[in-house]
Specification:
Length: about 190
């Protein structure tokens, strides 16, 4: 499988260590590493940040309500998804089960990744990140899409034997019980 992947997508020259040594842009853009190539995404706009903030608060409150002192929710932290495949990403929100005194986290530290997709995120970027989270065995993944002038769409996934299984979908302002390490309800009408 790895030979097949490398022939289709030759790895770029940048390592995870190189990526971690890079300075993040001062304008709020995010520098991520995908298959050995540095990718700069524009600074998240207001709707993106608002949705991520709402999810952060919902997760923090749910973790506290469940009295899970082993879990912490963090906004926009670096995760070293794969050294072999030279991939490091910055999920919009992350739940980790380790001490938070780090500048980056190993994939096994990540319990839940949350990605808020804006219309500018390419399908290739989306697919690569989802595949990276699955390969790193991140147990839960939430994706929020913010289509122009439409309600936010929320998808909640749980990792299965062969990849992610979608457990929840909401596209018209519903409140859903999202899969995760603690019970949490997401009112998708509040993500806009």
């Amino acid at each position: 499988m790895s030979a097949e992947v490398s022939m289709i997508h030759p790895l770029g020259p940048t390592t995870v260590e190189d990526w971690l040594a890079e300075e993040q842009p001062s304008d709020g853009s995010r520098l991520e590493l995908i298959l050995g190539y540095l990718y700069m995404t524009p600074a998240p706009g207001g709707p993106h940040q608002y949705a991520a903030g709402e999810l952060f608060v919902a997760l923090r409150n749910a973790i506290r309500a469940a009295d899970r002192t082993d879990l912490r929710v963090l906004p926009a932290v670096a995760v070293r998804i794969s050294t072999a495949f030279r991939t490091g990403v910055i999920p919009d929100v992350a739940v980790v089960d380790v001490d938070i005194n780090h500048t980056s986290f190993a994939p096994e530290d990540l319990v839940l990744a949350v990605e808020v997709w804006s219309p500018g995120n390419t399908q290739a970027e989306r697919d690569t990140k989802i595949a990276g989270y699955a390969a790193a065995r991140v147990q839960f993944l939430w994706i929020v899409e913010l289509p122009d002038e439409k309600p936010a769409r929320f998808m909640g996934y749980r990792l299965g034997e062969t990849g992610y299984r979608q457990e929840v979908y909401a596209g018209a302002g519903e409140t859903v019980a999202a899969p995760g390490p603690v019970p949490v309800e997401i009112d998708t009408s509040q993500l806009r």
